[in-house]
Amino acid sequence: MKIDALKALLNEMTTEEKVGQTIQLSADFFSDQSEDITGPMNEMAMTEEKKYQVGSVLGISGAKETIALQKRYMEENRLNIPLLFMADIIHGDHTIFPIPLGLGATWNPDLIKQTAQISAKEASAQGLHVTFSPMVDLVRDPRWGRVMEATGEDKLLNKRYARAFVEGYQGEDLKEDLTKLAACVKHFAGYGAPRGGRDYNSVDLNENTLREHYLPAYQEGIDAGAKLVMTAFNTIDNIPATGNKRLMRDILREEMAFDGVLISDWGAIGELVPHGVAEDNKAAAKQALTAGVDIEMMSAAYSEHLVDLVNQDETLKTLLDESVWNILKLKNDLGLFEQPYRGANETTEKEAVFSNENKQVALTVAEQSIVLLENNGVLPLKKDSKLILTGPLSQSTDLLGAWSWKGNREQTTTLEDAMAAVANPDVFSVIDDRTFLEGQNSFFMDDLRTADTVVVALGESSEMSGEAASRTNIKLPENQLVLLRELKKLNKKVVAVLINGRPLDLSEVVPLVDALVEAWFPGTMGAEAITNILFGKVNPSGKLPMSFPRSVGQIPLTYNEDSTGRPMTEGKRSEKYLSRYLDAENTALYPFGFGRSYTTFEYANLTLSSQKISEDDGLQVSVDVKNTGDVKGLETVQVYLRDKVGEVVRPVKELVDFKQVECAPGESKTITFEITEEQLRYSHADHSVSSDAGTFLIGIGTDSSVTLSASFELEK
Ligand code: BGC
């Protein structure tokens, strides 16, 4: 629709119709049983008439269903304004990819973009228009269950993934390309930092940290063109984000130049009341609209009160018009006025979803997401050694993770089946550990005694991470630790495969195993991917996007912490008055960027093209990376930097770039990175972003524990 026609449409709308556009309901309000949801209808201040004025629906899917609802809706809607259909396509639609934390471990944004393209293709064929993804919240606290939905603790990595997701979902021409979805960057802002790791809890970030570490990934998603942003449940500066005018209007709209649709998180406008910043839903509606929230998801503040509010207040009337304009523009950008069913098509749907091609990508990405944490030589498995598979997750299809939308566990292979398809049947067997866990351990142990190697699949169930799944104890469940202790007594080689949604405290596990494989929730092709890694068909290359702590007491933990006045350094172990723990190291058990391979890489000849850098001239830093083992391997080469003196305290180290390189055994490659003045900028005391002249330390290595052994000067 031409812009003039769209403006004319806005002018033609009644206040009630405008308010309708700002309301989002879940799909069940439109189901044939909607009479049965009279309670919720009342709660949402809905009537049959108002229902056909709402602007969007969440959680619907299926070409048949979306076409039917759109048709029915448009027949009822006076101005024939189509509905928007939204859903949480987080790490796959039917074809499920690893959870975002696993995707983060690939360090491969191009591959992540491909997963987003597939998600969009599958979902758009079912008639969806918007996905509530990517979640780009930076995370430092694995007690928070939603770390599984994040891509980790580092802003650079998060930025690259944010762009990859948005570009993958939206493509180049959202209007013309019906296989694409509009992306929604969430949760603005700082949702990844809840106090104590408890979901929905308040957030206490100083503004410098917020700007320096947390905002950049949202900004990158916006710069990549994301059409929507979702508000966060939490507070920023003690004001809930959803009613925070400074955050939404001054920072998001003005500074960050976001001009799309701002949608509340589920019920978050209504939650301004229990937060205690609004007396009732009416005050909440006023606060949220004033802050600039365009769509209210699943609470009744707008639906109950906006009409009255705007009728009494000209300023609010203008704000309502702005919001409705944003929503109509989004519908227009998706081409819905011309094609209200957009990509929905039952035939394409059948071809698009869960195709072999999509599954192949799911396999590749799952393989690349797996991180080898320990290996004393037991992996890859030898095909003729006697192998036993056990553990609570060995026969499980709970491999998809908490946000696996249309993922079907019945179409998910268990590790038992995947391994049986590859292993030599004469030497492979599976023992159900439940016999052991039920206390009949002698029978179980007798069977195990004949094995050379035991593969034990451990971890969390998918309900143990994700939304509203915070934990204070992030160890493996006690029965799994008991199992490992018993296995250790048998003197067998033990390979633990972990399937879980967060960095776990593995301190007790490490001494009990010969190899440790972090597989996250690996998705549709997860069991096959794990099997390929275990048997060496694929050499592991995943690198942690988030630190694994030694103990829960270290949390929040991040490799790029701020410098302290009393740093703990190697030479000072005997000193007391330092920033340290009495009972643990400061460092992570497995640091950010860490991951082993079946081969080894040697780094040598760190070389800088110049000792100086300026605003006009950057420098090149290079290193030779040699594969010193006997299999081909993929290494992620990481560059870290430290700004020695800043106006505000700077991180002890920060990732500034990375590249992946594949080397054959014995092969050496020189990897070169460009360093420019732009990479040295940071948020100053007045929140302006610039660099300071002075010394920078730099290092290139295999993970964030690298020593920064070279330096250069920025001249201004
Ligand atoms: C979550 C969002 C999600 C929304 C819609 C909320 O509870 O916080 O991330 O997009 O529900 O399902």
Could you characterize what this model shows?
- The protein has 21 helices and 26 strands.
- The chain has 716 residues and is an alpha/beta fold.
- Among the domains are: 196 residues, Glycoside hydrolase family 3 C-terminal domain (Rossmann fold, 3-Layer(aba) Sandwich); 116 residues, Sandwich (Immunoglobulin-like).
- The strands form six sheets. It has an eight-stranded parallel β-sheet with strand order 9-6-5-4-3-2-1-10.
- α2 packs antiparallel against α13, α10 packs parallel to α12 and α12 crosses α13.
- It starts with a helix and ends with a strand.
- The model has no long low-confidence stretch (mean pLDDT 95).
- The site of beta-D-glucopyranose has 7 residues, from loops.
